[in-house]
Amino acid sequence: MCIHFNHLRRFVLILFGVAGLVCLVVQNTAADTIEQLGNGAYLYLNGQNRSLFIVSDAGVIVTDPINEKVAVAYRAAIATITDQPVRFVVYSHYHWDRVSGAGIFKQQGAQIIAQQRCAERFRENPNPAIITPDLTFADRYTVTLGNRALELYYFGPSHGDCLTVFVAQPANIMQITDVVNPPAAGFPANPLVPYIRPHNLPQFFAATEELIDQLGIEELAASAVFPGSDDVAMKSPPLAPVSIVREQAEFWKLIDATVKRAAAERRIGIDGFVRLRDDEFAAFESYPGYHKEDLPLILRRFIGFHDMGR
After folding, report:
1. What is the tally of structural domains in the chain?
2. Distance CA 41, CA 1 (A)
3. Beta-carbon contacts of residue 186 (< 8 Å; ≥ 6 apart)
4. Whole-angstrom Cα distance, residue 119 to residue 134?
5. pTM surpassing 0.85?
6. Which CATH number goes with the domain that contains 185?
7. What tens digit of pLDDT does each residue of 259-276 get?
């Protein structure tokens, strides 16, 4: 279910069905949207970003405020569906474009939570827009609030050093911010992938897949609008089958295997670029977001890892 809000005309509703979803839409120039996932779990969509939040009978758990301006709109959008206060703000990772602007929630009494390596990053590279976490955790933590919960899992470096896998309960919906995004496994938005940590990527996906099997998770929530989407509702749904996590893991395995094969066949130049064969390009063409010129850039990141451990 999608609910678009216009704060000036909140009662003009247009009903339509999209891929089995019923959306309540009110036009809003800021394009802030609430997408209802079920069992108290929602996504807040503003521009290209989607942030998970959970509404309980004792308050609200918010993730990723994006920035100060968006956080104000985020709080206003939440107020249209509940008068419960925001009790917790949880950071998915340390990148400033996702976790700035929590001040409005902190001023209203919310506690800030992040994985402990995120807190280390904030100390080493401070930004006044980042509110320091009140509480940190190592491997696992559950934020329980009334009849709802947000489970937090850390499986080592992946997208940066401290990415946290979210599981909303009792909805049993997973979100893996910026790593896997509905509707399908695909190319990363930034082909330079400076944030990817190749050394732990296989272990990260293996642990995530094990958690999916353990909890019986069936759905994955989006954290962004899928790259290239013109029609948000049709091309970039809020949910997808969790099987795309395994498919994304296969993408990165293919990247790594391509680099290893090229190295064995001495097809890597002194500039760090692979001389790719046509069949190697073809192996990636079916992935959404594919651009022929991007593939060598992604491969170069993995070459740097295998050559120097970067």
Report:
1. 1
2. 11
3. 226, 227, 248, 251, 287, 288, 289, 290
4. 9
5. yes
6. 3.60.15.10
7. 999 999 999 999 999 999
